[in-house]
Design the sequence.
C-alpha cells in the first residue's frame, strides 16, 4: 500500500469538497508526510519514487494557479514586468476559475509577444551609428520582408489582447440586456410616449414612437 493510499484511508472526502479539491489535498498531505520522512532519511526506494511523482503533480498544479508558464516563456527583458502584470490581472479579474486563469495566462503571453515583435520591428527598421548619435532607415529587401512579418505579429498580438480582455470583462461583468415596453433607449436617452426629449420639444414635426411588444 502506498503512502497516498494510507492518507486517503485516514482522511475521507468532506461533503462540501469537490473531487479535484480532495485529490489535491491528498497529494499535499502525501507529499508533506514523505518530505518529513526524507528529512529523516527514512525513505525507501518506492517511497522516493512516489514522492517524486506527487511532487510533479503539485508543481504542475502550481504552474496553472500561479501563471509560471507564461512567465517562463516571456522574453528576459520583460520578465520583471510580466510577473506584476499577472498579479494585477489576477486581482482585477478574480482568477477564481480555471477558465479565468487560462485567459489571464494567455493575456500575459499576448502582451509579451506584442513587445517582442515591437523589438524585432525596431531592430530591423532602424540602423544606428556606432556612437548611437544618428539613426538611419534600413531599406534592405530582406529587412523589409522581416519588418512585414514583425508588423503582422504586432497586429495579431494586439488583436489577442483586445479579445482576451473583452472576454475577461464579460465574464466578470456580464453585459446587461434590457427589454423595454412602450419605450426605447439610445445613447442613454429614453423616449416615452407623450414625453419628447428637450431637443424635439419645440419641433413642428410629429414625434414617432414605436411600441415594442417584446
Sequence:
Amino acid at each position: 500500500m502506498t503512502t497516498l493510499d494510507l492518507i486517503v484511508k485516514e482522511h475521507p472526502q468532506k461533503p462540501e469538497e469537490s473531487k479535484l479539491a480532495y485529490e489535491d489535498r491528498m497529494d499535499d498531505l502525501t507529499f508533506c508526510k514523505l518530505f518529513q520522512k526524507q528529512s529523516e532519511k527514512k525513505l525507501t526506494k518506492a517511497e522516493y519514487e512516489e514522492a517524486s511523482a506527487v511532487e510533479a503533480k503539485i508543481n504542475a498544479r502550481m504552474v496553472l494557479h500561479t501563471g509560471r508558464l507564461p512567465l517562463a516563456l516571456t522574453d528576459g527583458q520583460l520578465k520583471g514586468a510580466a510577473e506584476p502584470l499577472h498579479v494585477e490581472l489576477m486581482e482585477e479579474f478574480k482568477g477564481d476559475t480555471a477558465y479565468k486563469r487560462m485567459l489571464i495566462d494567455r493575456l500575459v503571453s499576448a502582451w509579451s509577444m506584442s513587445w517582442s515583435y515591437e523589438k524585432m520591428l525596431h531592430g530591423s527598421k532602424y540602423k544606428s551609428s556606432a556612437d548611437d548619435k544618428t539613426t538611419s532607415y534600413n531599406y534592405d529587401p530582406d529587412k523589409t520582408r522581416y519588418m512585414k512579418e514583425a508588423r503582422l505579429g504586432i497586429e495579431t498580438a494586439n488583436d489577442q489582447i483586445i479579445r482576451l480582455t473583452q472576454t475577461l470583462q464579460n465574464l466578470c461583468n456580464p453585459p446587461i440586456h434590457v427589454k423595454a415596453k412602450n419605450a426605447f433607449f439610445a445613447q442613454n436617452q429614453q423616449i416615452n410616449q407623450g414625453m419628447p426629449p428637450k431637443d424635439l420639444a419645440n419641433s413642428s414635426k410629429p414625434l414617432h414612437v414605436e411600441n415594442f411588444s417584446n
Summary: The chain has three domains: 3-66, 75-172, 178-214. Helices lie at 3-10, 19-39, 45-66, 68-73, 79-93, 98-125, 141-172.
